[in-house]
Amino acid sequence: MRKNHRVANAASARPPKWSELLTTVGVTGTNGKTSTTRWVAACLAQIASPVAQVTTLGSFLDDVPFDAAPDLSGFLATMRAGLQRGGRFAAIELTSEALARGFARTWPCTIGVFTNLTHDHLDAHGSPEHYLASKAQLFLGLPPQGVAVLNAADVASELIAEVVPPGVRIVRYAVPSRGQALPPPDIWATAVQTGWGGTRIAIEARGDLTHAPRELAIHAIGDVFAENALAALAAALVAGVPAVDAARALALAPTPPGRFEVLSHDRGPRVVIDYAHTPDALERTIATARSLCDGELWVVFGAGGDRDKNKRAPMGAAASSADHVVLTSDNPRSEAPERIAAQIRSGVGPHADVRIELDRRAAIHGAILEARERDVILVAGKGHENGQTVGAHVFPFDDATEGRAALAHRVLPAE
What we know:
By secondary structure, this protein is of the alpha/beta class. It has helices at about 35-45, 70-85, 95-100, 105, 120-125, 130-140, 155-160, 225-240, 245-250, 280-290, 310-320, 335-350, 360-370, 400-410, and strands at about 25-30, 50-55, 60, 65, 90-95, 110-115, 145-150, 170-175, 185-195, 200-205, 215-220, 260-265, 270-275, 295-300, 325, 355, 375-380, 385-390, 395. The strands form three sheets. Strands 4-3-2-5-1-6-7-8-9-10-11 form an eleven-stranded mixed sheet, sandwiched between helices.
């Protein structure tokens, strides 16, 4: 795994009897899990609060952080606290590694949400087939009268649909940017408009979801977040959240930190911090940044060491559409940063401006200080993380903090 998921260490065990008192929505997929889980929780809170929530960002009761260990005991403590304080729902982010270890048997989910399947974590799983099979464990464990919410525009969804147990309802969603939806979805976006103020989504629905709102407005920026919001909306509606309440909750919900997080300033370029660390996520995030850019587009990123090495060249290829590519360190761990950068560089191909600056702070500051006022600088890969792993040590480091510092330095008046 790339990150220390809060329930990654859960081993297969019998669920506690009281788990049946919480209706749990589990979210899995390669990209978009955290955003989707956060938005599901925001919608569920319209029915009953607090919603016990566990994601890569930590443990929460509604939006209030809950101090819990990043293991199974901490997970159970969060769930129990939500129940004891009057909650009826939980929303949890599930990684492939947690599912491979039997988490779907340790804690039962009633609704499972699948976001997408792209290149990632093959170092841990060995093959795309094992990676998908691990994700599918969430849906194999759904009970009769449970619901599987699947991305109709991702081909992996139909493989998951084949293993959904009898009696489990399948609800499909789709957005145009992912491609053709097969089979036809139950709820889908007909148009997505993005701007620096957020994203608006026009919606159509059929069957049992015809009561869905015809438009969503979210603070998050980009087609990928439209997809995540639609997944969250579908899960909320099948869980019983009134359509108008779900739409309002999504409109008010903040963007999770490090997910197309815009650092603005009165003067200077716009700086975007994003967690994109897979080829698909990077390509989509760059496309969003490009659509909003009036000048030139910069991308500053690297790749994690001791992890899926085969995704490095494809990440370079994804970045090749930017005007300026700055390759730097992510979390190099025990690998030589220059070796990682060279593997990414091989995928970029011929390009007018590719630079290698292995000091991430220098890379971020250099791009921001050199960029022009109408440019956009995308700093990708670490998002919300507040540390950088080099060798066996974790050093304090935060992309957003560095971005703000560089912007402030840029606009200091000359003496």
